[in-house]
Write a structure and sequence with these properties.
5-stranded mixed sheet; Beta-Lactamase; 10 helices; alpha+beta; Helix Hairpins; single chain; 5-stranded antiparallel sheet; rod-shaped; disordered N terminus; Heat Shock Protein 90
Amino acid sequence: MVDVLRLSGPTTLLARTSFILSVGALLIVMMATFALYVFVIDPITEQSADDEAAMLVLSAQTWVELPPEARPYFELEMAESHDLIISEARQPLLEMVNYSRYFDFLRRQLSKRLGTPVRLLQSEDLLWVDLPMSGVELQIGFPAGRREIQPLYVAIVIVVLGAVIVFLTSLFIVQRIARPLVEVAKQAERFRGSEGIEPLPETGPRELASLAHNFNTMAQEISTLLANRTTLLAGISHDLRTPLTRMRLALALLPDNVDPTLTERFERNLESMDELIGDALRFARGTYEVAQEIELYSFVSEVIDSFEQPIVLERRVPVDHRAILPPSAFRRVIINLISNAWQHGGAVRVVLNAGLVEVIDDGPGIPEAFRDQVFQPFFRLDSSRSAATGGSGLGLAIVQQLCQARGWTIRIGDASGGGAHIKLNF
């Protein structure tokens, strides 16, 4: 559902703000264009048509009232000054087919002034009108486009200029807001509770400065809390080794008449406690380990060779491919994944890619409903695991904790031939 919502509209703050401002500006431009057309353009068009009609009628009246010898001079003056062609000879012309709003106003005003219906005629480059005046039929020609008003072009210009202004304004505003938010998002994505994260600059508008200050405070508090927790865990685990050793020594010094079954049960419990303590110490060491450059293939090969069981390793990277990783943490993750796959799956195959390790087994697999829960401490799948299988129950939980601390991702899927298919992206 979230992916559908993301695809249905802009995703970035700049795009969303520009979109909203553009929609608002478009509505304003549409209303402004409508008001401009109704209250400005339309009245001006009508008034201009009325003035044009008055000039045409006045020109015809003046021509009729002038003596015949003065009419050619008047015709020349009107042609040069007003682009009006006055002719007593009538031309066979076709009536204008599509009347624009201006020419419709002109036709109606002429008909109103003359008291008779008037038609507009058209030639190749001029429009003509027949004007009956004092028994004389005159034809007056005038340019077709000199009075034409184009409200559509006006609207397009307003919309384009408005869109450019809105985009530049939103770009300026959003950049000032988005840049600090992007930094917060990047820091939040990189933050894994480790120390040494660069604090955000607490500048800019009050809200953004407050956000940066609160984030820096939260990051510092979380880092301190995790560091204290890890130190406490490591200290307790280390200190438990001493009483555990004393208990083993006391168990070895028990008289021979002690029940062997009871002794064996104590030994198993001590081994379980030792394994839990070892897992806790390994986790504490791996959380804050410094990354270094290693040869990936030889490193993973060495880890796999430490197992007694045969494990297939498929290499899909060059032999000398290098990666920057924390060695102990990466080794612990690989060991835990392989151990879990072997213990509960059977035959194990490891596929090594650049930035990706795949651990595949041929066991019963992990149901999809439990793929998140298997990373919780001491969680067991009854269908595939039992108390008899052993283990501390912290293997995958430690894997998840180390991956979160290092920014790695781990996913569980189904293998093509059955079993579990775990992908570790690092």
